[in-house]
Amino acid sequence: MVTIDTAASKRRPRPHAHTRGYKVFRVVNVTVLILVMITMLYPFLMIVAQSFSSDTAIRSGHVSIFPVGFNLTTYRLVMGDATFWTDYRNTVVYTAVATLIAIVLTTCYAYVISKKHLRGRGVMIGIAVFTMFFNGGLIPNYILITSIGFRNTIWAIVLPNAISVFNLLVMKSFFENLPLELMEAAQIDGLNTYGILWYIVLPLSKAVLATMVLFYAVSFWNSWFSAFLYMDKSELFPVTVYLRNLIAGASSASSSGAGATDVAQVSANIQSVTMVLTVLPILCIYPFVQRYFVSGVMLGSVKG
Length: 304
Fold this sequence. Notes:
By secondary structure, the protein is mainly α. The protein is 70% helix and 0% strand. It has two domains: 14-60; 73-290, MetI-like fold. It is globular, with a radius of gyration of 27 Å. The two termini are 36 Å apart. 19% of the residues are buried. Mean pLDDT is 81; it is low at 257-265 and 296-304.
């Protein structure tokens, strides 16, 4: 006969989630995260508010996080500019092509160097890591791109930045943590290296692939210096160069004589509208990719 000591069961320590220290931690954690969120959101909300505000309100400095003197005129002007839409189309094409190439190259490279039995693996990793700290410099890169005929082409933007070493190392670590038993079982079933990568590894890597796609897409979407450096034809510029030219024009206006302050403040409205329109696609895509950041794709994939 088994007896239960009810008194002892009542004296059991409370769960960790109900301790006073944990409650204090949660309050402090939530407070800090709210402050960080406010700090990050305030500049963006201010830009959105300026984009919908009147020029008079911007001149008087009354715009904070809410629009003052609701105004859609600037949106109509910017969206009616054919140059803006040409540059926008260029950005979409550059980002799509560059992200696709970057994902393919990064995945293949990471999968290869994740194999610990591979001869020369350390050298391949060392070459990649070396490029994180050392590069040829601006002038040699410019000479290289010019000499191989990439100027004024999409390849000047796509290929020099095709592999991010940070993303490569993240994906390599992910591949190394995949269960070796799955690879061995697939090999016994007759799959070769490419079949294992396509049918086994990639389906289990949706989370890291989605993360890398987002990282690369944001990087290429926001990039402007490569196009500014390697492209001379305005019809090939991305929208970030369009925005850069607006900001440069406002900066030069603010330093040139009487009435310059008004011109700079009015141009702030145009800049804000362009920034909102530029960042809008990323904001629309992110919610669909974010869920992969926290999904446990390996949960229960191998049971022992």
